[in-house]
Write a structure and sequence with these properties.
- This protein is mainly α.
- The chain has a domain of about 30 residues.
- The protein has one helix and no strands.
- The longest helix is centred in the middle third of the chain and has 50 residues.
Protein backbone atom coordinates (compact mmCIF):
# COMPACT_ATOMS: atom_id res chain seq x y z
CA UNK A 1 0.00 0.00 0.00
CA UNK A 2 2.69 2.47 0.99
CA UNK A 3 4.75 1.79 -2.15
CA UNK A 4 1.73 2.55 -4.34
CA UNK A 5 1.14 5.78 -2.43
CA UNK A 6 4.81 6.65 -2.78
CA UNK A 7 4.72 6.06 -6.55
CA UNK A 8 1.56 8.15 -6.81
CA UNK A 9 3.11 10.96 -4.78
CA UNK A 10 6.24 10.86 -6.92
CA UNK A 11 4.19 11.01 -10.12
CA UNK A 12 2.15 13.88 -8.73
CA UNK A 13 5.28 15.78 -7.72
CA UNK A 14 6.81 15.23 -11.16
CA UNK A 15 3.70 16.43 -13.00
CA UNK A 16 3.35 19.46 -10.72
CA UNK A 17 7.04 20.26 -11.22
CA UNK A 18 6.72 20.03 -15.01
CA UNK A 19 3.53 22.09 -14.97
CA UNK A 20 5.14 24.77 -12.79
CA UNK A 21 8.16 24.94 -15.11
CA UNK A 22 5.91 25.36 -18.16
CA UNK A 23 3.85 28.05 -16.45
CA UNK A 24 6.97 29.78 -15.19
CA UNK A 25 8.58 29.65 -18.64
CA UNK A 26 5.43 31.10 -20.21
CA UNK A 27 5.31 33.80 -17.53
CA UNK A 28 8.97 34.66 -18.08
CA UNK A 29 8.56 34.80 -21.87
CA UNK A 30 5.49 37.01 -21.63
CA UNK A 31 5.88 39.14 -18.52
CA UNK A 32 9.60 39.85 -18.20
CA UNK A 33 10.13 41.55 -21.59
CA UNK A 34 6.95 43.60 -21.13
CA UNK A 35 7.91 44.70 -17.62
CA UNK A 36 11.46 45.46 -18.71
CA UNK A 37 10.25 47.50 -21.67
CA UNK A 38 7.74 49.36 -19.50
CA UNK A 39 10.37 50.22 -16.89
CA UNK A 40 12.83 51.23 -19.59
CA UNK A 41 10.22 53.46 -21.23
CA UNK A 42 9.31 55.05 -17.89
CA UNK A 43 12.96 55.65 -17.03
CA UNK A 44 13.65 57.18 -20.43
CA UNK A 45 10.58 59.38 -20.11
CA UNK A 46 11.64 60.58 -16.65
CA UNK A 47 15.20 61.30 -17.80
CA UNK A 48 13.99 63.29 -20.79
CA UNK A 49 11.46 65.19 -18.67
CA UNK A 50 14.13 66.06 -16.11
CA UNK A 51 16.34 67.44 -18.87
CA UNK A 52 13.44 69.30 -20.39
CA UNK A 53 13.60 67.39 -23.68
CA UNK A 54 10.50 66.06 -25.42
CA UNK A 55 10.83 62.24 -25.44
CA UNK A 56 8.89 61.92 -28.70
Amino acid sequence: MSSVMLKFAAMLAMSVDILMRIVLADFMCLAVPNVAMAQLGTAKHMIFENRGIDPS
